Batch of 3 targets.
Target 1
Amino acid sequence: MTVPPDFVAVLPLVAAVLAATAVLLVDLALPGRRTAVLLTALVALAVVALAVIAIGGEERVAFGGAYTVDALTTFLQILFVAIIALTVMFGPDYLVPRGLPVAEFAIVLIFAMTGAMLLAASTDLLLLFLGLELMVLPGYLLAAFHKSDGYSTEGAIKYFLLGSFSSAIFLFGLAFVWGLTGSTRVSDVAAVLSTFAAGQGTLSPGLAMGLAFMTTGVAFKIAAVPFHYWTPDAYQGSPTPVTGYLSVGPKIGAFALILRLFVEAMGPLRADWLPVVIVLAAATMTLGNLVALTQNNVKRMLAYSSIAHTGYMLVGLAAWAAGRMEGLEGLLYYGAAYSFMNLGAFAVVAALQKRSGVTSNLDTFAGLGRREPLLGALMVLFLLSLVGIPPTAGFFAKFYVILAAVEAGGALSVLAVIMVLNAAAAAFYYLRVVVYMYMRDPETEQPALRHGRLVWGGLAAATALTILLGIIQGPLLDIVGEAARAIG
Amino acid sequence: MSDSLDAYLILSGILFAIGTFGFLARRNAISMLMSIELMLNAVNLAIIAFGSFIEPLRADGSVIALMVMAVAAAEATVGLAIVMAIYRNRRTPLVDEYDAMRR
């Protein structure tokens, strides 16, 4: 018996669906046994990661070109598995004191990962949309995970309404692009668009409108200014481990969609969309940082800071459009570095909220450095990395993106200057948390909390990656270089 | 039955605009959900129109339209569940009263 090559290519996806099912069955067979559920989830995720690596060894094209396994696919899928594994580890300490189910949390997360993995491998507009929906629908459920809590459901309904609104906009654009180019395959759309770029014929108004609608839909998903209104409330309201996931998983997923859409499908028209991305990037990082300066709630502050980080990543995309391959590499490096440092920061916030009723206000951090020295030190590391101070992952991520923008020259050097100014302004609100941790006394002295082994394990992994990516850049640079060459 | 593709696309555009307006103007979460459904149906009308007027797109058109319907159904399910959950907390379906985090 031979296995059809198409099925071999989608094996990681099958493994991911089976992983979620396995967790579901274990929870059914052993109700209330959290350790068994978590162990199953982590082992299953390791199996998925192995499947991704095993399948990703060679380039595969399956289902008539709709599904592609290349270096970019493998890189992004591994990143998604890592993000989900870390989130599963950070979850229980927050969920259990609040009486929220841990098994369902892990299952919904793994289903969301399935969507993100499909997104990373799709080279067909319809499949990209399907992957996007499979990723965000579990995200809406996770945002409303604390369903008896007014904040959680309020954040969820805002996330859901604006999310499906943007999906509808994206789909309307997709209908016109498909109808007027005759195909949903990314490569076919690129072929049609490259004839316009070569000067044969002009872009019809319908097709231009379709591409514009798709761009708008994606801009909502990555929370680029002016399409970011849902972000602060969705992030502040959600349970903290979920917020950590939402600030990383769907964002990298949407960037996977952007890479396939802008770089592969709309690559021939890069000169036309470059100004749009430059304006989006400048507005996104500036507004995100300015509003983050005024926040007193750490979750809300990190929400606005995640908007700013979206802007930094868009600079990498703009640098690619201006002819620098390093821009794409910088974007991917930034995606990986941002994932680990941001998840780490949210994990510390979640760990502090282990005692039910503790808010995520800045006051919670007062005296943390003295009360829990290790947790405080880790928070400082993640915040310094988010600021971009060497030798952390965040510094080199920003460095590569800015370098690519400077080398591209022209309007991009202005963008690089804006980015440096933004990074300096951002230092102020990140370091404000550090000031609270080490220089303010808490109003009421609280005893130190005991954190679970899983949380420490996850924090150790996030810390190690944040430091390692800052000291040894070579291996990841090779990987992202190969991934960038696969599409650019 | 008009035999012009443009007529159907314009109708689809008008439906989409009505849906968008409804989403932006209505304050009731259920009405906003209905407006999103209207936008998705406008998308489906455009897809079916392309499929029936352009011969090579015919087979693809039906598949894409079915896919859009499935996604719309999944979205409505999740959406109504979230609306139910927040209604139990707040006793109102009006979204402008969901402002606890902005105060």
Target 2
Amino acid sequence: MKVFALMAVIITGAALIYSTFGMPDWGDADSPANTHVSPRYIEKSIEETATPNIVTSVLADYRGYDTLGETTVIFTAGIVCMLLLRNKKDD
Amino acid sequence: MIKDFDNIIIKTVCRILTPFLQIFAFYVIAHGHYSPGGGFQGGCILGASFILLVIAHDINTVKKRMSEKLNTFLCSIGVMIYAGIGLLCLMLGANYLDYGILHTILPVDAVKARAMGTLGIEIGVGLTVMSVMVSIFLNIASGGKHEEGAPE
Amino acid sequence: MIWQLDILILTIVVICAVAAISVKDLLSSAILLSVYSFLMCILWAELGAVDVAFTEAAVGAGISTAFFIGAIYQTTRRTKD
């Protein structure tokens, strides 16, 4: 059984490593991620939002809905942990 | 789980370290516009300072400062600040979470108002993350038992 | 991006990941996962993603290790298998 598990891990790992050869190089200026939306953010972020850190302006301003959902996920996780782990007997 | 063991070195170091950790957390939240950081990371550091207090002192020491009621209140308030700023933009006549319209009630221009709105939601995210981290750790560490002075 | 540093960090990451699942002591497993997160944080910072590195250091190496240790204290320290 262990042999099959090892085979499955090796085959999956080899497929993943093989698929990384199709990805663009690190810092490639012609990759799709660097040609469509990134130049717009880099050029306009400081004059539209007055925020020098582009990551913050994208996370909190341009993609505000996304961060709202993320905060709601954390809030839900905390409430569920409180409900599940709490001992119901006291108070 | 965590009992009050008398070790003066750990207690003193943690008492000196905790305010600096919290000031650094506020710096990370407030300075997220100019340097790496933001509400999530700052909230995590703020929660870690309370976890350090649990490890150094008793669990009841922290429960006196961050009770379960206060934790629940703070993590709801954080999400409410976030959604409330969005609703405020909606009521002032812009889209949801479009902070540019906030310049009508703030004494800044429209571009600076976007930075102010970003700061507001970072504070909300920080509050939520801090109280959720503290409450999860208190619940795990005490095994869900919340009575005063319980040994385990 | 220095490729020698990359190779070194990635090797230690793989060693930490294999050691974390093969060690019998759960407490050392949690600490090895913390080391793994910290090395990933160095890797992110080296690739230029400083915000991701900061999040990885705060959440992966800091808070989640504290949660793991808190959970291990509620159970036995050694694995059964």
Target 3
Amino acid sequence: MTSALGKDLLALEPLSSEQIRLILDTAEPFKEISERSIKKVPTLRGSTIVNLFFEASTRTRISFEFAEKRLSADTVNVASSGSSVSKGETLVDTARNLEAMRIDMVVIRHGASGAAQFLAERIESNVINAGDGTHEHPTQGLLDLLTLRDHFHRLDGLKVCICGDVLHSRVARSNIWGLKKMGAEVAVCGPRSLLPNAIDELGVTVFSRIEDAIQWADALNVLRLQLERMQGGYIPSLREYNRVFGVTSERLARAPKDVLILHPGPMNRGVEIDSDVADGPHSVILNQVTNGVAIRMAVLYLLSGGRPELAEAAKGGGGR
Amino acid sequence: MTDRQTTVLDARAMDRALRRMADEIVELNEGTDGLIIVGIQRRGVQLAARIVGSIRDREGVEVPSGALDITLYRDDLQTVGPRPVVGPTNLPWAIDGKHVVIVDDVLYTGRTIRAALDELADFGRPRRIALAVLIDRGGRELPIQPDVVGKTVEIGRTQRVDVLVSELDGRDAVVIAAKTSA
Amino acid sequence: MTPRNDAAPSILLRGGRLIDPSQGLDETGDLLITGGVVEAHGRLGEVRRDGAAQPEIVDVRGRVVSPGFIDVHCHLREPGREEVETIATGSRAAAVGGFTAVCAMPNTDPVTDNQAAVGFIIRQAQRAGGAKVYPIGAISMGQQGQTLAEFGEMVGAGAVAVSDDGRPVASAQLMRTALEYARTFGIPVADHCEDPTLALGGAMNEGVMSARLGLRGIPAEAEEIMAIRDILLARLTGGHIHLCHMSTKGSVELIRWGKERGINVTAEVCPHHLSLTEAAVEGYDTNAKMNPPLRTAADVAALQEAVKDGTIDVIATDHAPHHYDEKEREFADAPNGIVGLETALAVNLTWLVHGGSIGLPLLIERMSCAPARLFHLPGGTLRAGSPADVTVFDPDASWTVDPAKFRSKGRNSPYAGQTLRGTVAMTLVDGRVIHRA
């Protein structure tokens, strides 16, 4: 038996709006648990979760770890530096080893697009994608949706512009799919060298000028500009990037209405976003972090359990 | 479905039962000091609100109340799927040293109350926890007994008790029906 | 004329549909093979062997008898990667696929960039007893793109063309020199057209699919820029440029432009680029990863049209076996390429002939006659006195692709599990039956 989400959470693209709404709604009661003095419920007691991080990510790993621990799961962190290419164990061998250890769930972060799906197809455990290459980062997309919904009390008809390095961003892809499925209007804004060539075929509006994006949007999701993009020759300099595409308070002041500011972190202050914007009254960047734990608890909860062979024996336990 | 239903309590009888339960809770606590009424999601929450209202009418006191969703404490989570919907838990009062009265609609196996006790323990250490249920249908699987009961009914495993509340169901009633195979 | 080998058996293929575009032949009849060469063909029952021994008579009614297929582009991996494929397994896989000859690309380890290496391949092929194997020598020493390999020595040892396939020739000057120098020996220069800077790190076609999957794309222009460079260099030098595995609509237009101007450009296309699109990459299927990548439906349509109108001369497999666990990995890290020798005929029949874009004679032209003509190889004809390199196939029979049954060591096929039409009944090389279903 599989959950309402299926066995795994690999991407938002294949999910229905009902499934996304279920995750967002389920996250609501989980917010309260993190406010308790004892921030722990026994829901996943006895479940074993491996956090398999092939790429360094303090923020996402900690968020998942809190979510797992607050659900009482037993967790193991496996960090593997460098990609699997030509050194160390292959991903398929890693998968087989995990399977042999009878774990219940795997949270995987990997530098290769499709790595989470690759793993999911090879093991019976539930797999949660914590970011695969430049493909998707579904829990980040979901926590962004939750943060937007908290603030606007709706997603339908909301105008959200994703700003920056969309080409290399898994966050951007998950946002595009999640927002569109929930009825929001999505735009992207950034230098054309950092936008996928066929981006408009995904059904998003493209702004070349950040000023135009700010005029249009209810909210901006400002992506982190990976510093290595400059070495990669996509942009000439960080200084110029900030001058042309930086989200600054001067630019926001010219907007016809208050624009909500999201950022998946970690921020490059003074590059894609100015400090006074990041710390300003319209920034919900820390709300995103808080919601991240609730979203991940919801996803863990929804994917877990459901062992059909035990269901019969336990029948009547929840009856009236 | 054309289940044959038997009404155990109609709206008036249910109201009387709840008012009597409210009186018994105040008696049990020897007043309203230190009392906190906690309803269990879902219909326990509405019943708790009625009891709080009844105490307000009689005693002129607004007793603190809260709501508890025990889904995440269920002992059958590894076996049921898909996942049950989680409702809100709202317990804004410090419960340490207080007399917490759990309110639920039907007491059956006792597993829900076991979960509620576990959950309450995560919020603090009450002086006493008591249990008030509108219907006790027997069939306990755990050593749990109610302190205050609206009505006791004797029914078999093939039947179910449904408590209807006007806030959710459009009317107040307690009915017995055959369990559907689903 | 091919020397006769009187030790070879006599065979009479009786009652097949004889199709030989090299002489405009398409009739039902008999084909008599003696001494390793085609003796005669004619209407049913009219072909007689005078005197001597009675030939073995093989009933091929309902089948097509054609000149043997010639693959001008395959990777046999020997020397260097014998666990993946050898000249023996590759040439036998070719025989099963109806190929009587294949040209082996030089990106082996060590690179086939000298006379001795060419000789090694020829000797290994003679032992294999499968399809004939013609080595292609490297353009540059070690395929490093720096200095020319010894074309003359390699041709003397049996090489039939030069190519740095697997790598593009980045330097226009080196390509110019190669085209000029190759004229001395009358051999084509086969180029893998890819601008290495545009294609850097690419794993699939650039477009909406790559945007969705988060995979780095290779734009069509990476191929087209090199295709037009090569065409212009052929115009400059008068050399014969052969463009390998063309994959885009734009390349087709550029080749057409070159041919219209009389430039000595020829081109090949692979069965997979005539049948599959980038949609096959969905789910990160590494068996849909090749270079050049699978493109769009518009590209497939343009390539099919180019096969029909002659803009593209040859269909070649780019047979590229890999060990099974090399493909069992993250998409971006998986190697490029698929096996093709044992599915090429059926893919071409299913998508082109049964798909309605070309007839059987034209398919045989593209798979047999044109390759022989462009690479100056024996075969590609059923004329009397020609080497008896012959393929007999059933163009209609259905079968389901099961890579476990391949003779190739490679199992990496995007057609696994698909039902295709067209099976090879017999493959004959110099009158010897090297494969019989």
